[in-house]
Amino acid sequence: MSSIIEDLITRKVFNNRGEETIEVDVITTNGFGRASAPAGKSRGKNEVVYYPQGGIDEAVKKVDEQIAPELAGLNADFQEEIDISLHEIDGTTNFKGIGGNTAYAISLANAEAAANSHSLLLCQFIGGTAANMLPYPLGNCLSGGQHARGKAPDFQEFLALPHGATTFLEAQTANTSIHRRIGDMLKRKSTGFNGGKSDEGAWIANISGEEAFETMAKACEEAGNELDFECGFGIDCASSSLWREKEEKYIYEQEGRKRDTAEQIEYLLELIEKYHLRYVEDPFHEEDFDSHAELTKKAKNCLICGDDLFTTNNERLNLGIRQKAGNAIIIKVNQVGTLTDAADTIENAQRHGYATVVSHRSGDTSDWHIAHLAVAYKCPLIKTGVVEGARIAKLNELLRIEHFLGSRARMADLKLAW
Length: 418
Ligand code: PGA
Ligand code: ZN
Known about the structure:
The protein is of the alpha/beta class. The chain has 14 helices and 16 strands. Strand 1 and strand 2 form a beta hairpin. Helix 2 runs antiparallel to helix 3 (100-117), helix 9 (314-323) packs parallel to helix 11 and helix 12 (369-376) packs across helix 13 (389-405). The longest helix is centred in the middle third of the chain and has 22 residues, at 168-189. The N and C termini lie far apart (43 Å). The protein binds 2-phosphoglycolic acid (PGA) and zinc ion. 2-phosphoglycolic acid (PGA) binds at residues 40-43, 156, 236, 238, 307, 361-362.
């Protein structure tokens, strides 16, 4: 079996928002891998740059003329070597040279090509025979904030978490049931609701934040009763988009309220207690490590997760570890560019007791790689939508992995995370 890279083929494709993105094929002597890059809408300030100045066209040209000749002849099995080469060719600290999304597509396609060269699934190739743990799906059911157009709740995402499920199939069944129930409830409740959904397939409705919490809680309870296991939920506040630096306040436009940092902490603690929230992402703006630390200390049985706060960046995570800010971290490989960079962050996070949450982006393709990354790196949670093609591609791949593992498959132990 040989995994020597013979060629890279690059093209422009589209994501679920209809935005152009880059796709790369890596061809080895005995294998093939293909990956296309996702794109965020509520991006963290510390993410790498997606494309060089000339956009995707320049990125494609760079792969054809510069990167493919450099990588040809290298062994795809050695992911770190490939990813170091990408950094060297780029020559900047934030992938401004070749583009972080270019690096992402090459890095993931390379990993898949290596696995394929050995006739292994990606999760097996990376994680070995120990890779038998399925993550719980955090499913986006209701959208607001920057992910909504028009009037909607101020928080960006309301996420179902069926933590009592004993298989991934049960978990996804619960999430689809919760999602469906919410749609039905919104139809009954809001006259203006016409079935609109976000890019991630979450419902968008002109309801208040409080109504959104109540709807989620009711749908989770009903689904849990029907399926006979506990279903909870969490939120992504995406607080950087609520924060106004000048006023030093979080602006809740729909609610017509402003909260300073102390009020924001109080408000979130109330919500965590009232709705038994299991997961709160980006509760404060991305530079406020102190408040993240305070909430982490005070919140009970709830993951406090950093997305924009950490941007999958190991140095940012180290700041968090030092201050005990958060106890969970979102892993979006294209926030840092390569699989090796993301794997380093995952390893560091897990060593320091942070729950790792592999995540899609709001603009995504039907790529399924993150399903394998969650299993390979033993991440207890995966964040995606519940419906919509780009999300279903990942969820169905997890169902295939669970089926493939058979009696060896088991669900992550969330008690360890809480
Ligand atoms: P994205 O954000 O639009 O940048 O993908 C999703 C999130 O904040 O988790
Ligand atoms: Zn987020």
